[in-house]
């Protein structure tokens, strides 16, 4: 798998990253182990985790695989802090309580980082992100915290996720960040307006999240909602169904037509398109099982002809 330099740093990552947000919910331990092994065998390096994924279960599962299944040195391990899972006990006592809460103070960020390092059994992350905007914490405090974590060797590089363009630009002016996560796909091109230009101006590499728009761009919803899909899951059904509008239909039809002409899958076409967008260093893609991941990895070898890429640009262009 091709490795790319991230922003104006020396860090190199695989241009497809492995997401772990389904680990512990839709992905069991055996499937997680199979995914990680297949990903590394394909040349992948960037693995994304978080203490907030599935209430901490995803990070716990990854920790069990490090050392036993794979060497820590084989991975570019990406983590984050700032979004804190509410304990199961609190959820039981308060059924209406939120699943997470946000605190990006120096105390909260470093405490969560230290816990992550202990749980993963490593002395550092390769990438550590502030995972949400917190208006209560001064930017100078966040910047100082990130610089401290880098200087202390607890992380090699720092970044952000969940930031808008102006928030990213404000922090990048005073903090040593090299990456910024943003939802970005053929169905979510809002980042192109100001987020991507801001990132490129500040030498920050964009990591595209949700590049398949919740699976819509695979074409799985063209003839209804599969029983095993996110659209059938109560927790995500409303979000998926909301996106299944007329524009989505046009874009998905174009992706399927392109895939048929190229003899590949709609999934591969959608991923190849986002992979090659200006400013994108990598994309984080999740899979429930090894079968889905195999389809994701197939996108690595697909090069979209210019005419097809241009046609997809046109059909997916925003009109608002």
List keywords for this structure.
single chain; 320 residues; alpha/beta; 12 strands; globular
Structure description:
This protein has helices at 29-41, 57-65, 88-93, 106-120, 139-151, 165-172, 195-201, 237-243, 246-262, 266-275, 290-298, 306-316; strands at residues 3-5, 12-14, 16-19, 46-48, 76-81, 83-85, 100-102, 125-130, 155-161, 177-183, 205-209, 280-285. By secondary structure, it is an alpha/beta fold. Helix 6 (165-172) runs parallel beside helix 7. 43% of the residues are buried.
List low-confidence stretches.
none
What is the total tally of β strands?
12
Distance between the termini: 36 Å
- SSE topology string: EEEHEHEEHEHEHEHEHEHHHEHH
Described by the principal axes of the CA atoms, the overall outline is globular
Continuous helix count: 12
Structural class: alpha/beta
Largest sheet: 8 strands, parallel, barrel
């Amino acid at each position: 798998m091709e490795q790319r330099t991230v922003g104006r740093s020396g860090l190199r990552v695989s241009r497809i990253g492995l997401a772990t947000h389904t680990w512990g919910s839709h992905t069991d331990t055996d499937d997680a182990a199979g995914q990680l092994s297949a990903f590394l065998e394909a040349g992948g390096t960037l693995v994304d985790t978080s203490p907030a994924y599935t209430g901490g279960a995803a990070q716990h599962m990854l920790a069990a695989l490090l050392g036993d299944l794979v060497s820590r040195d084989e991975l570019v391990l990406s983590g984050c802090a700032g979004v804190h899972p509410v304990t199961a006990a609190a959820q039981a006592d308060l059924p209406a309580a939120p699943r997470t809460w946000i605190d990006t103070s120096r105390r909260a960020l470093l405490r969560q980082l230290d816990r992550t390092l202990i749980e993963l059994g490593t002395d550092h992350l390769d990438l550590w992100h502030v995972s949400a905007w917190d208006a209560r914490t001064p930017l100078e405090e966040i910047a100082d915290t990130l610089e401290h974590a880098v200087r202390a060797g607890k992380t090699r590089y720092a970044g952000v996720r969940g930031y808008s363009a102006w928030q990213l630009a404000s922090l990048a002016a005073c903090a040593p960040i090299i990456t910024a996560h943003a939802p970005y796909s053929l169905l979510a091109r809002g980042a192109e307006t100001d987020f991507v230009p801001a990132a490129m101006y500040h030498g920050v590499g964009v990591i595209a999240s949700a590049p398949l728009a919740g699976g819509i761009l695979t074409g799985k919803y063209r003839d209804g909602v599969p029983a095993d899909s996110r659209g059938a899951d109560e927790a995500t059904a409303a979000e998926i169904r909301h996106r299944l509008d007329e524009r989505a239909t046009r874009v998905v039809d174009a992706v399927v037509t392109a895939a048929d002409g190229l003899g590949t899958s709609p999934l591969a076409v959608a991923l190849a398109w986002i992979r090659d967008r200006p400013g994108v260093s990598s994309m984080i893609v999740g899979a429930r099982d090894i079968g889905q991941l195999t389809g994701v990895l197939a996108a690595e070898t697909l090069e979209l002809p210019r005419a097809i890429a241009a046609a997809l640009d046109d059909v997916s262009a925003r009109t608002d």
